[in-house]
């Protein structure tokens, strides 16, 4: 498939797809006229790349982990690296959960003051 079709099917811009290629994350074949041609498997590959980017992994890290994460070939070193990334994501999730809980507490407190008419905070400006 051509780059425009891959972009439509994955919801990714053609510019992003070119960036993935520059970073070694995608490897399209080239037609005789130089146009990029992607295999059907590129759709899933782009989706995995997007998931990993959304999880906070850099394109460099994704390129390093591609043999294990995308291609299914693991070495002990790659598995260790994946565990490090998983643990980092776990810490980030825990931080987000604490932030969510704090916001829930603020929302609950603010909701209680709405019923009493008391202000949530007082302006200190005169």
Automatic annotation (TrEMBL):
<protein>
    <submittedName>
        <fullName>MerR family transcriptional regulator</fullName>
    </submittedName>
</protein>
<dbReference type="InterPro" id="IPR000551">
    <property type="entry name" value="MerR-type_HTH_dom"/>
</dbReference>
<dbReference type="Pfam" id="PF13411">
    <property type="entry name" value="MerR_1"/>
</dbReference>
<dbReference type="InterPro" id="IPR047057">
    <property type="entry name" value="MerR_fam"/>
</dbReference>
<dbReference type="GO" id="GO:0003677">
    <property type="term" value="F:DNA binding"/>
</dbReference>
<dbReference type="GO" id="GO:0003700">
    <property type="term" value="F:DNA-binding transcription factor activity"/>
</dbReference>
<dbReference type="InterPro" id="IPR009061">
    <property type="entry name" value="DNA-bd_dom_put_sf"/>
</dbReference>
<feature type="domain" description="HTH merR-type">
    <location>
        <begin position="1"/>
        <end position="68"/>
    </location>
</feature>
<keyword id="KW-0238">DNA-binding</keyword>
